[in-house]
Amino acid sequence: MANGNDIDGYRYIGSGYNVVPVGRHEGIAINITEPKQMIALMTNPQKIKETVVVTPGGTTTFVAPLLMKKPAGIITYAGTPESHLGIVGRNFRVPIIMTLKLEGMDSIPDGTRVLMQCDGKLGRVYVKVATGAQSLPEPGSVLG
Amino acid sequence: MFGGGTASAPSRGSHCMMLAESDFVVLNAVHLKKMAAVAQIAEVTELAADDVARCIATATEKGWLMDMGADGVMPLEECIAQVTNHYREAYAALRSEAALLDWYRNFESLNQRFIAAVTEWQESDGDERRERRVLQAGGRLAKDIAQLVPLIPRYATYVRRLERSMERVDAGESDFICKPTVDSVHTVWFEFHEDILAVLDRARDTT
Fold first, then answer.
1. Where would a tag sit more exposed on chain A, N or C end, judged by fewer CB atoms within 10 A?
2. What is the ipTM of this complex?
3. Which residue has the higher pLDDT, A13 or B13?
4. How far apart are CA B72 and CA A40, in angstroms?
5. Is A66 inside any structural domain?
6. A137 within some domain
7. In this structure, are strands A113-118 and A23-31 parallel, antiparallel, or unpaired?
8. Do residue B34 and residue A90 have CB atoms under 8 angstroms apart?
9. What is the pTM of this model?
10. Domain limits at A50?
């Protein structure tokens, strides 16, 4: 279901606090909720650069080493830019959107191609939509 | 190293021995930094590099640390369990100390001011007035941590680290305000905050 927030080829899924004004960045979402997932990702530096790390909150300080490797972006569901994560993210100029409020979905599944629009104070997140079809289920639809 | 500890209740998936203090200091530095090389650990712990290297090599061999090459080592599950167990055992009595709990309450408001000051400094592209606010907070924290040294002697290294990083800012090296890859004021502050939270067995809030 398209809405006025969508951009060509992408469906808008929500917005949050933008940490660094770095424009538009894209990557593949991976949800990281514990240190061992972060360590697994750290063993593949090329993959990190293509990854948008999705993590529960601003308190997930174990993602700090990932920032040094310049992931495509970081999305959190809590926290504000005035935080340790915000400070470190600004240093590395990594796209970070915090306290993302999702619209029309409960989570961002691993493997989703995500676009982050990081301008001004409000950051916007989009998911790629396949041409001629939806790559993600519409809200309220039956999965599979 | 790795043999001089004291007996305690077994921690998750590990042997019964609490870490020797020197091993704890090294492994705790890795735990707080999330990833660190021998030289960095030696700098912040003020231990001899050879001793640090031996401790790191043994822990890596035991599967407690992951070798990340030039980036150093990262703590694996067993390292985190060992360090957490040490905090739990070594500081159990301190957790109910009224003076420490009062100290931490005061620290929380200083921490908010510090985070705001660093954020404003970053967003101002290095405004001098905002730099002074960061240094004022850093100086305040150094004095406050010094009050804890009788309770936790290893905290003296945090005082020295803060003083060194502030001296470098005063000398014109603005990287030492908050650059994550050096022992900046923010880096030291962040690690200290993680440390005191572990002593108190508390979770971090959003800052």
1. C
2. 0.87
3. A13
4. 16
5. yes
6. no
7. antiparallel
8. no
9. 0.88
10. 12-128
